[in-house]
Amino acid sequence: MGLIGICVRVTINFGGSVLVPDWPDFSWVRSAVNMIRELKARKHDVFVVVGGGKPARRYIEVGRNFGISENSLHKLGIDITRVNARLLSLALGDLSDPEPPLNFREAIQILLQGKVPVMGGTVPGHTTDAVAAMAARASNSDLLVYFTDVDGIYSADPKSDPSARKFDRITTQELLKLVGPKVTPGMNTVLDPVAVKLFERLNIRILVLGKEEISRFPDILGGKKHRGTEILR
Length: 233
Ligand code: UTP
Description:
Elements: E1 9-14, H1 16-19, H2 26-41, E2 45-50, H3 53-65, H4 70-92, H5 104-112, E3 118-119, H6 128-138, E4 143-148, E5 169-171, H7 172-179, H8 193-199, E6 205-210, H9 217-221, E7 229-232
Parallel strand pairs: 1-2, 1-4, 2-3, 4-6, 5-7
Antiparallel strand pairs: 6-7
Helix pairs in contact: 3-4, 6-8, 7-8
């Protein structure tokens, strides 16, 4: 489905699984940088949120073996998302700020300077999926996009269940049933339930796209079709 062919403000979440599948992946980070550069050249406003990927889950797993509290495990995850945010913001050079914002106030200041804020996590208890939903609201974005390592939202994990079916569209109610009620440190569902609840109050288009669509995204914004999932309220 095509999108609006004018300048828009867009919040983009890159799942850690995209930029940091095991370790930071040069070609995917470069793909994100090139796409953001193209969006800026086309005069769009861009707010970026980055996840923690496998390193975050690994830190949390080791910490959990020591009986560390859930709150502290979440904080470990936040630290890793912020390392990833720093990498992407530095890779963006002058387009971004070398100091990734730690909160939305700082992020909006960077956005108002015409630069691209790149944020990791904020406070314990949700994932960067929810941070992106909050960022979209704080920045008054027209569109919220999640890039993941699967090409949309499926009825089950397509990597382990061959009968999994991809949704072209899904409502937040259906999505809540899929993701379950609770956020645990390092959880691995397509989107976290805190984010899905925030979607219910966000009156903008929300898309989940595969990482293969990163390079096409400027054209998708310009009206070309995407192959992911649209989230409806
Ligand atoms: P991620 O945002 O990486 O989790 O946060 P994710 O979206 O499930 O995974 P990716 O994006 O595919 O990698 C990692 C962990 O950090 C903590 C949570 O425990 C989360 O599971 N976290 C993150 C917070 O507690 N608060 C935040 O704002 C962000």
